Amino acid sequence: MRILVAVKPRVYREVLALSLHKHRPDAEVLISPPESLDEEVGRFKPHLVVCSEGAVPDIPPGVLCRVEVMFSDGLDARIGLDGQVAEAKDVGTEDLLALVDRTEKMISRGAPN
């Protein structure tokens, strides 16, 4: 599974990436500044994208889950998964790991990767 983390500030994306890698060591985790998100999505072909509010690129079909973190309102997030978009309040590590697990299940069911 490939995860792209593109949030601002840089320390947030580094901490998120380290946490994801620690809890899911088999996942490939890449960090990118939000300004390079479109390019990195095309190059890395992630299954899951964690990005800052307003940085959402045109998500190609291979991206199964998108988490748009809205720092302007705490750590709420807009989550796009399996064709549906929902909002979550005060997103934490457990929430992200649950999304990683759901995305992995989609991959194992044969979703494009």
Salient structural properties:
113 residues; alpha/beta; 3 helices
Layout of helices and strands, plus pairs?
Elements: E1 2-6, H1 10-23, E2 28-31, H2 37-44, E3 48-52, E4 65-70, E5 76-81, E6 84-88, H3 93-108
Parallel strand pairs: 1-2, 1-3, 3-4
Antiparallel strand pairs: 4-5, 5-6
What radius of gyration results from the CA coordinates?
A: 13 Å
Derived from helix and strand composition plus strand pairing, the structural class reads: alpha/beta
- Can you summarize the main beta sheet? 6 strands, mixed
The stretches of 5 or more residues where confidence is low (pLDDT under 50) are none
Per DSSP, the total helix count is 3
Strand order of the largest sheet: 2-1-3-4-5-6
Give the proportion of residues in helices.
25-40%
CATH level 1 class label: Alpha Beta
Strand content: 25-35%
- The geometry reads as globular
How much is the average pLDDT? 88
Q: What is the CATH topology?
A: Rossmann fold
Any guess at the CATH architecture? 3-Layer(aba) Sandwich
Give a count of the beta strands, DSSP E runs of length 2 or more.
6
How far apart, in Å, are the first and last alpha carbons? 8 Å
- Estimate nothing, just give the exact number of structural domains: 1
The sequence of SSEs as H and E is EHEHEEEEH
